[in-house]
Write a structure and sequence with these properties.
This protein is about 35% helix and about 15% strand. Strand 5 (about 150-155) and strand 6 form a beta hairpin. The termini are far apart. The radius of gyration is 20 Å and the shape is globular. It has helices at about 5-15, 30-40, 55-60, 60-65, 105-125, 140-145, 195-200, 215-220, 230-235, 245, 250-255, 275-280, 280-290, 295, 300-315, and strands spanning about 20-25, 70-75, 95, 130-135, 150-155, 160, 170-175, 240, 270-275. The strands form three sheets. It has a four-stranded antiparallel β-sheet, sandwiched between helices. It has a three-stranded mixed β-sheet with strand order 8-3-9. A two-stranded antiparallel sheet has the order 5-6. It folds into two domains: about 5-80 and about 105-175, no CATH class; about 195-315, no CATH class. The protein binds cobalamin (B12).
Length: about 325
């Protein structure tokens, strides 16, 4: 086995579902253009951080000066699809998207990437230089994952693996090791437009762009302050996030559930009682959601969303 194969085997042993390698050249000019147009069109909404460090996001070698290769991993967070339950008006509940029913994926993936770094160290003769990234670093994670052969970009803008679907978290180790790069997977959505048709707010635009400012994930998780009433109505009973464009994806419908038993899943977080949230103290919020991405939204944001869900159920607002 060569070094790249050894690394991949170790990544799978550590519980990742996908692993691939790419070089540190800038993302393609076509993809850079998509990103620039997205920013210029205002589609990033209040996500100011997306405007910062653009040159690093376009070019991993600018993010980390020792960079020679990027190891990209994917963690499957699919569950078996369940029927959606009817709303009980006496105890109204709000829906929470699948990824937020797991423990927070950031520390989970990082801890395993650091174990992979320990393994890399045995090959680097003590000269390993590395940077671990999961979500928050200025890295074009999907673009690198495509190049590393993990999947293709679908019309729902997700990285889709033809066998494992699109519920896949990504993480990277940028390293000074010279590793042999993988080939991209050539695939696409063909004529399917299910995700565009189902998007409740038109965030997935017909021109192929993604207006994140209209996406219910953005509105309920990233957006600060009041949500414009017309969009708030479309949120319906979605307390935290939206996954319609993922749920309807034909690749997702045949995807196997995630197999990593260490990645903690909370079966009771699919629907949360709205009145309980409105009565919640900051201490009980921290105790309940301390290990969840919901913690990142904060209690004030969660209460804002709970009010919107309740208003949508009672027809007020
Ligand atoms: C900002 C952000 C959001 C925003 C905006 C989403 C968006 N589509 O841009 C909001 C808050 C809405 C969001 C939502 C979600 N996010 Co998010 N998000 C990010 C973040 C921080 C940056 C994404 C970004 O650069 N957007 C700008 C646009 C222009 O980039 P892009 O859509 O990724 O497109 C790039 C490439 O895909 C490529 N490209 C685009 N179109 C095409 C077409 C073709 C043919 C080709 C070849 C290439 C290509 O070029 C672009 C430039 O690099 C990344 C982490 C990171 N550092 O990358 C996570 C990330 C993209 N999010 C992730 C996840 C899991 C989600 C959610 C599923 C969460 C959930 N609710 O369950 C949703 C999915 C919504 C959706 N359909 O995209 C994962 C995606 C994994 C995957 N399988 O794709 C990431 C990678 C985080 C991670 N480490 O796992 N997210």
């Amino acid at each position: 086995m060569n070094l790249s194969q050894n690394i991949k085997q170790k990544a799978i042993e550590l519980g990742f579902d996908l692993v691939g390698i790419t070089d540190v050249s800038p993302i393609s000019s076509e993809q850079a253009q998509i990103l620039k147009e997205w920013l210029q069109s205002g589609y990033a909404g209040q996500m100011e951080y997306m405007h910062r460090n653009l040159s690093k996001r376009l070019n991993p070698a600018k993010l980390f000066k020792h960079a020679r290769s990027v190891i990209v991993v994917g963690l499957n967070f699919s569950r078996l699809e369940k029927e959606q339950k009817p709303v009980h008006k006496d105890k109204p509940t709000g829906r929470v998207v699948t990824y937020a029913q797991y423990e927070d994926y950031h520390p989970f993936i990082k801890a395993r990437l650091f174990k992979l770094v320990d393994f890399l160290n045995t090959f680097a003769g003590g000269d390993l230089k590395f940077k671990v990234c999961v979500d928050s670093a200025p890295v074009a994670e999907r673009a690198l994952a495509v190049r590393a052969g993990l999947g293709f970009i679908g019309k729902n803008h997700m990285l889709i693996n033809p066998k494992l679907g699109c519920r896949m978290f990504l993480g990277e180790i940028i390293t000074n090791l010279d590793l042999s790069p993988d080939e991209s997977i050539i695939d696409d959505c063909a004529d399917c437009k299910k995700c565009i048709e189902v998007c409740p707010t038109g965030a997935l635009r017909l021109d192929g762009q993604f207006d994140a400012g209209r996406c219910i994930n953005y509105l309920t998780i990233e957006h600060k302050g009041p949500i414009p009433p017309k969009l708030a109505k479309k949120i319906s009973d979605r307390l935290f996030g939206c996954e319609e464009c993922i749920r309807v994806c034909p690749y997702q419908r045949k995807a196997p559930p995630g197999m990593n038993k260490e990645f903690k899943f909370y079966c009771d977080r699919a629907e949360l009682r709205l009145r309980k949230i409105l009565d919640m103290s900051s201490e009980s919020f921290d105790a309940e959601f301390g290990d969840s991405v919901i913690k990142r939204l904060g209690l004030e944001g969660l209460k804002r969303n709970a009010h919107i869900c309740l208003d949508n159920m009672t027809g007020h607002g």
